[in-house]
Amino acid sequence: MVQCLPFLVVIVPFAVLFGVVATEAGLNLAQVMGFSVLVLAGASQFTAVQLLTDNAPAFIIILSGLAVNLRMAMYSASLLPWLRDASGRQKAWVAYALIDQSYALSIQHYERHPALSLSQRLAYFAGTALMLCLPWIGATWAGATLGQAIPDDIALDFAMPITFLAMIAPMLRTPAHLAACFVAIVAALVLAGLPSGLGLLIAAPLGMATGALIEARTERKAL
């Protein structure tokens, strides 16, 4: 929980910003809170609200949200070796609380301490979930109810890029990591003109494939 504290510097304003934006888009308090409690994924929440504002068809909104959250499938695959023996109920709450920050902290902790028992791994993840998810929900409520009092010249939208940079940079430790990151970024920029989220849906697999290819070549050379 202590290790989560730096992330609150960006999670809280990001959640406040979502509460403000969603309210301005016409959602009532229950709908705004439903987003943060049920979806619990900031990037896809912003995407969905923007598309709702643009009167996009429901299937486009759902598809875009899934595309933005495709990275969660990669996170799950990465955590599987560490949490494989967890019960179905335990995996369910881990899946619910799996966000960028809880994943980044947990996977690095598991790799640094491979001898941890399953209960210790789950306990660590639970600590990150409590410290990250509850403030997200609370700050969403604050943004939806008190957001109109925030001056327009206070820019809260810095939170999203800073959060991702803080999580990703320490994890780029091998040539495969760097290659995957570079290809995904370039592909996302090239495909930025596609409908919201679809560019990421293509860029993410390209990045994963590149990283896997580099990793396989590195292992062959090592042999």
In total, how many domains does the architecture comprise? 2
Quote the beta fraction. Answer: under 5%
Can you give the mean pLDDT?
Answer: 84
DSSP E strands, number: 0
Given helix and strand content, the structural type is mainly alpha
Our measurement of the CA-to-CA distance between the termini, rounded to an integer number of angstroms, reads 41 Å
CA-based shape: globular
The topology string of helices and strands comes to HHHHHHHHHHH
Helix content: over 70%
Stretches where pLDDT is under 50 for at least 5 consecutive residues are: none
Could you characterize what this model shows?
The chain is mostly helical and 223 residues long. It is built from 11 helices and no strands. It is 76% helix and 0% strand.
Short description:
By secondary structure, the protein is mainly α.
List keywords for this structure.
single chain; 223 residues; mainly alpha; 11 helices; 0% strand
